[in-house]
Amino acid sequence: MREVSAPETTAVGTVDVPHRSVAARLAQALEENGTLVMVVAAFGVVMLVALRHALVVDGWMALVSGREVARHGLPSRDSLTIWTHGRRWVDQQWLAQLFFYWLARAGGVKLALLVHAGLATGAVAGAAALARRLGGSARSATWICLPAVIAYYPEASVMRPQSFAYPPFVAVLWLLMFDQRSPSRRVFAALPLLVLWANLHGSVLLGAALVSLAGVLGVASALRERARRLPRRALALAVMPWPCVLASPYALHLPAYFHTILVGRDFGHFVSEWAPTTLTASTAPVYLLVVGGVWLIGRAGGRITAFEKLAFLITAVLAFQALRNTAWLGLTALVVLPVLFDAIRRPAVEPRRLNRLIATVLLAGGAVGLASVAANPQSWFVADFPPAAATAVAATAGDNGAVFATSPYADWVLWSRPELAGRVAFDARFELFTRSQLEKLGAFQGRVGDWTATARAYRVFVMGRSGDKKLWQALVRTGTARVVYVDQQVVVLRRTG
Predict the structure, then answer these.
(1) Three-state SS annotation for 147-165
(2) For residue 328, which of 427, 481, 201 has the smallest C-alpha distance?
(3) Domain residues for 451?
(4) Is residue 16 situated within a structural domain?
(5) Are residues 147 and 287 in the same domain?
(6) pLDDT by residue (tens digit) across 424-471?
(7) For strand 403-405 and strand 460-464, is the pairing parallel, antiparallel, or unpaired?
(8) 136 phi/psi in degrees, rounded to 5
(9) Taking each helix axis from N to C terminus, what angle separates 166-181 and 204-224, rounded to the nearest 10 degrees?
(10) How far apart are CA 98 and CA 117, in angstroms?
């Protein structure tokens, strides 16, 4: 028996009148959802403003990998870097990377970044709309949306293949949560979504787990009710998502790839996003959502289904496991918690005219912000990666010099100077590293032991002026290298001797 007593409502909480004009219905929606529209629109504006710093290591890696796919087909062995040359490369995210490359070809990195912002903002808007459709009031959805988007923003603000995974995640939640209330064949639309997602980002495992969870709950319900036959529909939902995860050109190699990503390497020592989420000022909203969400489930859990409770708890556990998972918690909390929040507070009477006025102003401001950001030259979007620095790297490397670039700059160097392919030490594809290489990199960056021995094979070093300050200064101090180029962001050094 499903544990849900909240009534279904439309996206704006009222029944649409077919003969009303689109403008009238839009005005009504703004009046009833004004505060929620304000928060989502403000988030979109913040995403646009942040685009100047949204292209970092994962984005450059996506562009480089997409170029490889477009020019040479799907890769199977690495030919871009020295450390992993010839090693099997399972490019699971190939389709998202190819999309980003096509966008960059069509409109420069500016277009790729604008699409990224649209994907991230669209997912928030979709989650907010789903919360309303599930019965949450506009005001409660607004209050939940505030910490949810703060938890979501750090990961969502960066352009990466994961940007393409946010809309499918919300779409899968939409199908599953409505199916819990009113079973329909439409839920099987989640399967082709998973097939697409399986070629966009590894988070497809989360999507498959949620679909499978819905099926398992259906089977468990049938067993509880002592049904003569197990429902084929529930069995299909429990089993079919997992073949969808393997619907990829790399199908045979994906199990080993996912094992390496999830348990085979301890990336948390080298990449902060893979480290567990500890309580800091920036992660406080994550803790607030989890603690508050668990309390709300305990207080008013009968208002939502067992699936929604488990979906929230699963994403909460993942958010604590690694910082990069906090985005899924933010979206799930925005969908699940508003209807529970309504149980402890009386829904406010919405100031309809004021809502419409402020929401309209913010939406107009968002449109102006989009036009303003889009009008900036390409250089505005890559201000942290000056072309002069890439030119200095290529000039110092010459025709055969090898380049050691720390991970934030390696893929940018490869994208900016394609002729350096095969001469860069490594890039951000840490899943290709052996454990000894990870330890070697950690020793070099930590300046442990005979760390300067790693530098002897390279003519050029590319590092962040601030982020790698101690490292490049140590190279200069020990006489290992000298600075040949420096600006506000990047330092290029040449090995001495």
Answers:
(1) HHHHHHHHHHCCCCHHHHH
(2) 201
(3) 387-495
(4) no
(5) yes
(6) 999 989 889 888 888 888 889 889 888 988 888 999 999 999 999 999
(7) parallel
(8) -70, 140
(9) 10
(10) 17
